[in-house]
Amino acid sequence: MSIRTPTSSIFRPAKGVDQGALKANQSLVDDINRRNVLRGAVSLGALSMLTGCDVSEADSVQSVLRAVSYWNDRVQAAIFRPGHLAPTYSEAQVVKPPRFNAYYDVEDVKPLDGATWKLELAGLIADKRAWTAQQIYELPEQELIVKHICVEGWDYIGQWSGVSLRKFLERIGADLTAKYIAFKCADDYTESIDMATALHPQTILATKYAKQTIADPFGFPLRLRMGTKLGFKNAKWITAIEVTNTFPDTFWHKQGFNWFAGI
Ligand SMILES: Nc1nc2c(c(=O)[nH]1)N[C@H]1C(S)=C(S)[C@@H](COP(=O)(O)O)O[C@H]1N2
Ligand SMILES: [Mo]
User: How many Cβ atoms from other residues are within 10 Å of residue 225's Cβ?
Assistant: First the structure.
C-alpha cells in the first residue's frame, strides 16, 4: 500500500530563488501559503527577512518552515473562539454519497465488524469502560450540515450526526481541563485535537451520514466530525480515545502538516 501525499494547487513559486529546498518541504509551504502567514507566497527571501538569517541551506529551510508552522499552530489556538460557529447549510445542499479520502485508495479500506467493534477509553477519564456500537447508538444525536474541506483542494457539504463530543466526554467523566484528546483508528491513522475544539458545539462523534448509518469507507462505525477543522483532522474508524496533557503527535503532523488545522 503506498502513501499518497496531498498535492498542492496553491504553491506559487517565487522568481529568482532556488525552489528545491521549498519543494522538499511542500506540505509546510502549502500550509503557510494557504494561511497567508507571510502575506504572499513563501520564498527563501521572505523567510530570510522574517528570521533575519540567510535561509538557504536545505536544513535551515526546513527548521524555519517548521518554526513558522508551529508558531501558526499557537496563533490559531489563541484566536480560536469557542462560541464561534462554522457556516451550516441546508439539507438540499448535501452531497450524496460523500467524497472518499484516506491516505490510501478506497479499495484498500478494511471494513470493521460493528458487532465486535469496541471503543476503548484511556487517560484522564473517570469511567474507562469500553463502549459497544449499540451503546453509542443509544446516546442522544446531534446533526451537523457543514463543509468538509480537504487540503488537497476539494470540498463538499455533508450531513453528519452522532453524539456531541462534549456530552460524551462529560458522560465518561473526562477531565475537561486536560489539554488534548487523542484518537486511534483501525487503519493506524492517529489524530489529536485541543480541548477547546473537543468542547466546541460543532464537534461530534458521528455514526450517521444523511441520516443513514455511515458506510464503511467513511468511517463506520464511529468517526470524528468537526465544523471547525480541515478534513484530515476528522479521524475515521475510531477505535480508542485518550484524554491527556502530553501532546499526542499525529499521522500528518509527523509529515509536516499544520497540527491545529482550523478552517
Ligand atoms: N482513519 C483515517 N481517518 C481519516 C483519513 C485516513 O486516511 N484514515 N483521512 C483523512 C482525510 S485527509 C480526509 S479529507 C477525510 C475524508 O473523509 P471522507 O472520506 O468521509 O470524506 O478523512 C480523514 N480521516
Ligand atoms: Mo484530506
Answer: 26
In three-state secondary structure terms, 171 is: helix
- The atom of ligand 1 lying closest to the CA of 102 is 7
Residues of the chain with pLDDT under 70: 1-18
The alpha carbon of 75 and the centre of ligand 2 are apart by a number of angstroms equal to 22
Q: Report yes or no: 214 and 221 within 8 Å, Cβ to Cβ.
A: yes
Helix pair angle (44-51, 58-79), 10° resolution = 70
> In the numeric block, which cell numbers belong to residue 252?
500528518
The predicted structure's pLDDT at residue 16: 42
pLDDT at position 4, please? 52
Q: Report the distance separating Cα 50 and Cα 44, nearest Å.
A: 10
The domain segmentation of the chain, as residue ranges, is 11-79, 91-255
Q: What is the dihedral of CA 130, 135, 140, 142, to 10 degrees?
A: 70
- Closest C-alpha to 194, from 96, 91, 79: 79
Q: For 182, how many CA atoms within 13 A lie in the half-sphere containing its CB?
A: 18
Return residues with CB closer than 5 A to ligand 2 (ion): 101, 150, 231-232
CA of 112 to the centre of ligand 2 (A): 21
**pLDDT confidence of residue 9:** 34
**If one looks up domain 91-255 in CATH, what number appears?**
3.90.420.10
Nearest alpha-carbon partner for 211 in 128, 91, 35: 91
